[in-house]
Amino acid sequence: MTYETLIFETTDSIATITLNRPDAANAMNPLMARELSAIAIKCDESPGIRAVVIRATGKMFCAGGDLGVFGEAGDGASALIKEMAGDLHMGISRLARMNAPVIAAVNGTAAGAGFSLALSADLVISVDSAKFVMAYTNAGLSPDGSSSYFLPRRVGDRRARELMLTNRVLTADEALDWGIVNQVVAEADLDETVGKLANKIAAGPTLAYGQVKALLNASFDNGLETQMELESRGIADMARSRDGKEGIQAFLAKRKPEFKGS
């Protein structure tokens, strides 16, 4: 299937979603939100996909929501935004809850919804020239795209409030120091670095990765005993899985495990 605002490709067990509105700074419009939701379903429904990379064409990762579209909608902007946010949120939810880890390759500025999208990823690699800014209140708007959920979990409440209320711009190195990104690289090294990480993830125990994501997503909402019960049930389920059995046997045999993602 061909998409208008995104490029979707799969190579072996790695899916790549590329934001493809470079002339509009990859700003999120209603069509991009719908297409992201559709692709997220495709990834979630494809057990052969064991890693997902989100990247962008052009010089920016994503400038946020397309305010030009909102302005053109006039009094209908609120209804348009509800529809668009609903699609964006369904896409992010499925990516966050699917087994395959999601890697964001941030090639430039991530603002507003672009920052939110990066925050929702499991792992983030950024070029050293990238900037990160919430930006919502600069336009008299409040955050969306999961940022009010993920940002406090990544940086804590105080720093989340600072970023959302003051629109402080973070450099890539500051984002690394704050725990927003995992690694900062030169622009020339981004593709190779992301490719190596994606290949490593795609060769791993995908079901176990999914269990890790589920446990961490729930950890701020549960009490100690509830979370430990989820851990107990999760590790028991993994021990029954094909990869769990392979991992145990490989450890005992002192050999490298060969995970199949099941």
Description:
- With 262 residues, the protein is of the alpha/beta class.
- The chain folds into two domains: 6-202, 2-enoyl-CoA Hydratase, Chain A, domain 1, CATH 3.90.226; 206-253, Lyase 2-enoyl-coa Hydratase, Chain  A, domain 2 (Orthogonal Bundle).
- The protein is 50% helix and 15% strand.
- The chain has eleven helices and nine strands.
- It has helices at 30-44, 67-73, 77-97, 113-120, 147-155, 157-166, 172-178, 190-202, 206-218, 224-240, 242-253; strands spanning 6-11, 14-19, 51-56, 102-106, 110-111, 123-127, 131-133, 170-171, 183-185.
- The strands form two sheets. The chain has a six-stranded mixed sheet, with helices on both faces.
- Strand 1 and strand 2 form a beta hairpin.
- The chain is globular.
Q: Radius of gyration in whole Å, from Cα?
A: 19 Å
β-strand number = 9
Overall shape: it is globular
Q: How do the strands line up in the largest sheet?
A: 1-2-3-4-6-9
Q: Biggest β-sheet: count, sense, barrel?
A: 6 strands, mixed
At CATH level 3, the topology of the largest domain is 2-enoyl-CoA Hydratase, Chain A, domain 1
Determine the strand fraction and express it as a percent band: 5-15%
**Secondary-structure element order, as H and E?**
EEHEHHEEHEEHHEHEHHHH
- Using the coordinates above, name the CATH class of the largest domain: Alpha Beta
The total number of structural domains is 2
Helix coverage percent: 40-55%
User: What is the oligomer described by this structure?
Assistant: single chain
